Amino acid sequence: MEGLINCVAYAGDGQRLGDIDIDDISEILKFPGQFIWIGLYEPDEELLHEVQQEFNLHDLAIEDAHAAHQRPKLEEYGDSLFVVLRTAQRVESEIRFGETHIFVGPRYIVSVRHGASLTYKDVRRRCESSPHMLKHGPGFVLYAIMDFVVDNYFPLVKDLEEEMETLEEALFAADSRKDVTRRIYELKSQLLQLKRAISPLTDVCNRLVRFDLTLIQPEARLYFRDVYDHVIRINETVDTARELLIGALETNLALASVRQNEVMKKLAGWAAILAVPTMVAGIYGMNFEFMPELHSHWGYPATLAGMFTTCGVLYWNFKRLGWF
Prior knowledge:
Blueprint: E1 4-10, E2 16-19, H1 25-28, E3 35-41, H2 45-55, H3 59-67, E4 73-77, E5 80-91, E6 94-105, E7 108-115, H4 121-128, H5 131-134, H6 138-151, H7 153-170, H8 177-198, H9 201-209, H10 218-284, H11 299-321
Helix pairs in contact: 2-3, 4-6, 6-10, 7-8, 7-10, 8-10, 9-10, 10-11
């Protein structure tokens, strides 16, 4: 069936029983202790409706899972939980985001992936290799998925930090000012998207650790604290990176202003030097009969010598002041 990745039944001791059809779910759930783990990827409305009928999922949650434009959150619908996670994946130099919607009940867990997202095969394999943990039921599976999603943010943040270090080195290069400014804004945008994806998970983890959620067993609740710690670390790293980028942008703008001032000083210096011969030539260009040294044999060379000497003195002073 298109959109269906896995539909597996597990015994009460955490052992895998095998793949099953969605139509057989009600038969499997007749046996106490067993639970179902379904994995979906961009399912159509018909498949979602079929899963909804099997587990009696709420219409609003199904609508959210089908639309796939939600912020990370946790909602309770009767005896079930609905969790939304934002996934991230680097494609070349761009970070693309997707969503994972998770329905958690006493004896089932359904994960619905949309957009950019790594497959959860490794998550399932890790859980099945630890039946002593998987016996804690859907609550432990929810932890495993959340831990996988959050851990995938670490290499992305590390890549952005390395790129920031390269950016800082290029910040003082005179031949890449426009590229540096553009890349700073691109990194700020990516960090903002990461912040929007990871920040709401703080509240989600806090609620999962609380004791009023009976779907999460006490043994599994301890593991959500680990996810919470990872979320806090990523949040702090992203905040620090954003502050560094703001500082880098301010430094880049300051350097641009300094370079502009240097250019303006050079232009002003040359303008002052050129003003001298312009002024003298302008005076001698006036049509008056009686002018200094107008009929002198050495008048023209003396005037030129005076202009060149004055320009040389001005150039020497500007050079000494660091204008040239």
